[in-house]
Each structure stands twice: as structure tokens, then as C-alpha cells.
Write a structure and sequence with these properties.
Structural class: alpha/beta
Distance between the termini: 22 Å
Radius of gyration: 22 Å
Helix content: 25-40%
Shape: globular
Bound molecules: guanosine-5'-diphosphate, 6-O-phosphoryl inosine monophosphate, magnesium ion
Number of strands: 20
Strand order of the largest sheet: 9-7-5-2-10-1-11-15-19-20
Strand content: 15-25%
Length: 425
């Protein structure tokens, strides 16, 4: 039986997951999102054209791949609509190609307003969320105050629940001195959005269960990354969903026994958006240079990303907790031209070694990183298609990562375009 493949980010997001999913989907029947919402931004470059996806699974550009938005995803319907439109304008027929679960919770206007109101109230202590309403919508989900596509299908239920919730949320928004939600106008908007979205709604659990039974190839795409996981990262500097592989059971209904390969995407250096500890961060000019060279500006918010050296102590933890079996390295081309490249290999706090897993945000802020320094290379490597084509020192960098993590590196991406990669067997 063909097993389900999974792909997750092993750092703080933006590792190049979308780019790798696009590659791995070439023979996939289904590409599935199971977590997060449009806090994600996944960029794919095909034939010189850039496609930024926030909600639609990154496998959709492959001709024979259907895209499933499973129940664990939280949906901003306006963003979804603009993505549908982007693809349709490009000539893609989404009928029978895009399928959305009626169990998905909807991001409502008051979720976005509350996300921003909390951030403003935190002032200098703000978390740096994407402001897309992600925390508040998941909070409503677990406190039985959420509204799902299920209600949107049954319009009277939607009107009733939305009016009830919006009246309560407006009282809360007033305490923040923030503009309240105009309930009538919001309902008018949702009535229109509903007509466009409903044709895509189906029982994704059943579709996926049948697909797995029929030996179809299913690829599951994690949004965010393990170091942003709600439980296994430096809370509260996390996102609001679980990203670790086990959460696919809850987020898409796929049982753990059906999962085979778990791909981990490792960017050759590190980036982070938002606040919170970042042990290998480069705060000087070398960081600015790396940000510019790597184009490290958010796909979702356009914010400059913080950048730093690869942190193998935390990536090793991510590989362990998510059960990574294969690695795709990305953006190694960005390191070309550096004389020396540093890699974080262990943490030290007050003279004692400490593991990533036993650190909270306080320890992560205070600890010292121990580095290994490797030789860099000068050559532009974007044209390389075989491992042997890479400069020797670049090969050594890759081998060092593989040995340290104890996981096979199966793909090395050397550029953003679909064809710019090296497959290792
Ligand atoms: P994701 O959120 O993990 O899907 O990553 P993003 O799309 O937010 O950010 C990754 C960025 O790097 C995108 O602009 C990609 O087009 C780009 N990218 C991905 N892989 C490579 C690579 O190997 N080299 C270069 N230069 N760019 C890459
Ligand atoms: P992709 O899928 C990078 C970060 C935010 C913030 C924290 C909480 O493109 O890798 P949230 O809006 O989720 O409540 O914000 O999580 N964050 C991401 N950072 N890439 C992402 O997604 C992210 N999704 C959330 O910057 O620090
Ligand atoms: Mg991204």
C-alpha cells in the first residue's frame, strides 16, 4: 500500500516548503493542508512566474494533483477567494481540483480585530503575530465559540451564530477602544462569499480515506514549522496550531499508521519573523547582507525577516519530535560568496550544556551557542544539477548537516525555480 508522505518545516517557517511541495507533487494525486491559515505564505516559481499561496495547498499547480484544505485549517474566505481568482485568471480550472472541508473554522472579522488589539495592547512586548486572526480563531475553536463552514452551508445557523458571537466580541473590542464590527455589512459580505465557496465544500475525510484505500499518492503539507508548534516551541512565541506530524491525524483525519516518509525542510541558514528568542541571530551587517541576498521579506506581511546561522541543536530536536525521515535543504545558493560559514551545534547555559527541548524562552534568550566554522565557497551554484557539480566545501557543508542530524538529505534546492534542485539518491 502506498503510504502518505508528509512535509514540515524544521525551523521558524519560510524554509521553502511550498517550493519543495510543488516538486514532490509532480506525481501526487492529492496535496493536503492540515493546519494553520493565511499566516502561511508559500512561494512557488514556475516558468518565471511567482505564485504566493496562503491557503491553497502548494501542489495545486501540478496538472494531476487535487488540492485538499482539510479540517484543521482556519479559513479567511476573502483570502481564499483571491487565491482562487489568481489561479482562475491563470487559466486553471479549479472545479474538482480544489476541495474544502466543512469542518474548517472560519476566520471572522472580529478575530482579526482582536489579534491586532491584543498586539497593540502588548506594546513593546508584542509577539509579532501576522495579525491574521489565527490565535483568536483557534481560541474560539477550543472554547466552543467557533463558526465553521458547516454553518456557512446552513445560512440561518450562520446568521444566528455570527450575530451572537459578534455582539459579544464587539463588547470586548470596545474595551480595547477599537472599532467594532458592523454585523449587517459583514453578513452581506459573507452571503456573497458563500455562493463562491460552497461548490468546493465536501467531506474531505471520506475523500482522503478512499484515496488511501485506493492506493492514491497523498502528500501532506505542514504550514509554519516545528519551532512554531503550539506545544513544542518557546510558548508564547509560537503559532496557534500544532505542526508536529502527529497533528495530521487531528487536522486531516489521516491515521498515523498510514504515514510513510516525513520530509523536513531545512533552510541552509535561519530566518524568523516576529518576536521571541533566536539563539543564532545575526544582528550586525552580516545579517543585513544575508537578509538582502536571501530576499528575506515575509510572503504574507512583507516584514523583514530576522536572519542568522543554521542552528542544528534546534533542528535536531525538530527532526526528532516530528519523526523526520528525509531532508530537503533549501537556499544553500544564498551562502555562496561567504568566506566562512558558522553552524550552531550546541547550547551552553551558565557553563553547562543544555538541550533545546529543555529550554523555555527565558533560557533561549540567555544561553550561548557553540559554533562549528566551515569553509565557504565562491561559485554561483544555481546551475548545479548533480552533487558532484557543487564546490567541494559546499558538499562538505551538506555532509556535515546530514551527519549531525542523522537523517538522509534527499534534495538540495539551489534556487527558487521548479527545476533548480539536485536529487540525491
Ligand atoms: P515557505 O513558507 O516555507 O513555503 O517559504 P516561503 O515561500 O515563505 O519563503 C521561501 C522563499 O525562498 C521563497 O521566496 C522561495 O521562492 C525562495 N526559495 C525557495 N527555495 C529556494 C532556494 O533553494 N534558493 C533560493 N535562492 N530561493 C529559494
Ligand atoms: P509559513 O508557512 C514564518 C509566526 C509569526 C509570529 C508567530 C505567531 O510561511 O512558514 P500567528 O499569526 O501564527 O499567530 O503568529 O508565528 N508565523 C510564521 N513565521 N512563516 C510562517 O508560515 C508563519 N506563520 C506564523 O510571525 O511570530
Ligand atoms: Mg512562508
Amino acid at each position: 500500500m502506498s503510504k502518505v508522505s508528509v512535509l514540515v518545516g524544521t525551523q521558524w517557517g519560510d524554509e521553502g516548503k511550498g517550493r519543495i511541495i510543488d516538486l514532490l507533487s509532480s506525481d501526487a494525486d492529492f496535496a493536503v493542508r492540515f493546519n494553520g491559515g493565511n499566516n502561511a505564505g508559500h512561494t512557488i516559481v514556475v516558468n518565471g512566474k511567482k505564485y504566493p499561496f496562503h491557503l491553497i495547498p502548494s501542489g495545486i499547480l501540478q496538472p494531476n494533483t487535487k488540492a485538499i484544505i482539510a479540517n484543521g485549517v482556519v479559513l479567511d474566505l476573502e483570502v481564499l477567494l483571491s487565491e482562487i481568482k489568481m489561479l482562475e485568471d491563470d487559466g486553471l480550472n479549479l472545479k474538482d481540483k480544489l476541495i474544502i472541508s466543512d469542518r474548517c473554522h472560519i476566520i471572522l472579522p472580529y478575530h482579526k480585530a482582536l489579534d491586532q488589539a491584543y498586539e497593540n495592547a502588548r506594546g513593546s512586548e508584542k509577539l509579532g503575530t501576522t495579525g491574521r486572526g489565527i490565535g483568536p480563531v483557534y481560541a474560539d475553536k477550543v472554547s466552543y465559540n467557533g463558526i465553521r463552514i458547516y454553518e456557512l452551508v446552513r445560512w440561518e445557523l450562520f446568521v444566528e451564530k455570527f450575530t451572537f458571537q459578534a455582539n459579544i466580541k464587539n463588547k470586548i473590542l470596545k474595551t480595547f477602544d477599537t472599532p467594532v464590527i458592523d454585523i449587517e455589512r459583514a453578513l452581506e459580505k459573507f452571503k456573497k462569499l458563500r455562493e463562491i465557496i460552497l461548490p468546493y465544500v465536501a467531506d474531505t475525510y471520506q475523500i482522503l480515506t478512499n484515496a488511501i484505500k485506493d492506493n492514491k499518492k497523498v502528500l501532506v503539507e505542514g504550514a509554519q514549522a516545528v519551532l512554531l508548534d503550539l506545544d513544542f516551541s518557546a510558548y508564547p512565541f509560537t503559532t496557534a496550531s500544532n505542526v508536529v506530524t502527529g497533528s495530521i491525524n487531528a487536522g486531516a483525519g489521516i491515521p498515523p499508521q498510514k504515514i510513510g516518509d516525513v520530509w523536513g525542510v531545512v533552510k541552509a541558514y535561519t530566518s524568523k519573523v516576529g518576536s521571541g528568542p533566536f539563539p543564532t541571530e545575526l544582528k550586525d551587517k552580516s545579517g543585513d547582507d544575508l537578509r538582502e541576498k536571501g530576499g528575506e521579506y515575509g510572503t504574507t506581511t512583507g516584514r523583514p525577516r530576522r536572519v542568522g546561522w543554521l542552528d542544528l541543536e534546534s533542528v535536531k530536536f525538530a527532526c526528532e519530535v516530528a519523526g523526520i525521515t528525509k531532508i530537503a535543504i533549501t537556499k544553500i545558493d544564498i551562502l555562496s560568496g561567504l568566506k566562512k560559514i558558522k553552524v550552531g551545534v550546541s547550547y551552553n547555559l551558565n557553563g553547562k550544556s543544555i538541550s533545546y527541548s529543555s529550554c523555555g524562552y527565558d533560557e533561549l534568550e540567555k544561553l550561548k551557542v557553540e559554533y562549528k566554522e566551515l569553509d565557504g565557497w565562491d561559485e554561483d551554484i544555481r546551475g548545479c544539477r548533480k552533487f558532484e557539480d557543487l564546490p567541494k566545501t559546499c558538499q562538505e557543508y551538506i555532509k556535515f548537516i546530514e551527519k549531525f542530524l542523522g537523517v538522509k538529505i534527499a534534495i538540495v534546492s539551489v534556487g527558487p525555480a521548479r527545476e533548480e534542485y539536485i536529487k540525491l539518491v
